[in-house]
Every structure is written in C-alpha cells, then in structure tokens.
Amino acid sequence: MLTKKIIKSEALWLPWLVPALIIYILFMAFPLFDSLRLSMYTGSAGLGRSFIGLDNYRRLFTAEQYSQRYWGAFSNTVVFFIIHMTVQNYLGIFFALLLTGKLTKGKQFFQTVISFLQQWQCLLQVTCGN
C-alpha cells in the first residue's frame, strides 16, 4: 500500500513537464534543427533550393570574405560572454552578501531600496503581473 502511494506521488510531475516540453520543442528545438537543415541547402524558397551538404560551412571557415567576419564575430561573442558572466556573478554575490550578511550595517535600508526598485520596475512594465 505504501509503495503504491509513493509510485503514484512520483508521477505527479508529469502533467507539469509535458506542457513545458511541448513549448520547448516548438519554440527552441524545432527552429534550431530546422535552421541546421536549411543551412545545408543553397537558394531560397521562392527560387528553389538545392542540397549542398556541408559546403556552406566549408566556405564559412575557409573563404576569406566570410572567415574573417565569422571569427571576428565569434571572438566578440566570447569576450562579451566572459565579461558579462564575470561582472554578473560578482555583482550577484556582492548584493547577496550585502542583503543577507550579518555584518552589514544598514541591511534593511539596502533591502528596502532593492525592493522599491523592483516594484518601480514592475510598475513601468506593461506586462507586469499578467
């Protein structure tokens, strides 16, 4: 009897997971795989397409006109990611310590300011609470 209750209660997550999985597949996984499929063709939908396999990728990495731009964009993305993650993580840890630390003087003041700013931001957004 007890094992049936445990098994039954373990399956309660399924109705919550299925809608999220469907939304993820529709708006994230399907467009990703469709983009990969389309990248293996040349032409456009109106003029017709022909399958060329990985030739687009070969040209991207080897042709001078595309290669420089690609690697420039790639390096800019890596630099942006590193700077963004570093600043975001250190600021997050700093504010968490500021708001929860026992040694912080004026902790309630900082909590009030952050709460006020969050509520003000919510008021300025049209979709807040919907």
Plain-language structure description:
- This protein has helices at 2-10, 14-38, 55-62, 64-100, 107-124, and strands spanning 41-44, 48-51.
- The longest helix has 37 residues, at 64-100.
- Helix content is 75%, strand content 6%.
- It has a domain at 13-62.
- The protein is mainly alpha-helical.
- A two-stranded antiparallel ribbon has the order 1-2.
- The two termini are 43 Å apart.
- Helix 3 crosses helix 4 (64-100).
Number of helices: 5
| SSE string | HHEEHHH
Strand order within the widest sheet? 1-2
Largest sheet composition:
2 strands, antiparallel
Report the radius of gyration as a whole number of Å.
25 Å
Give the fraction of residues assigned to helices.
over 70%
Gross morphology: extended
The percent range for strand residues is 5-15%
N- to C-terminal distance: 43 Å
Mean pLDDT: 86
Structural class: mainly alpha
Low-confidence stretches: none
Number of strands: 2
Could you provide a short overview of the structure?
The chain is mostly helical and 130 residues long. Helices cover 75% and strands 6% of the residues.
Q: How is the topology of this model organized?
A:
Layout: H1 2-10, H2 14-38, E1 41-44, E2 48-51, H3 55-62, H4 64-100, H5 107-124
Antiparallel strand pairs: 1-2
Helix pairs in contact: 3-4
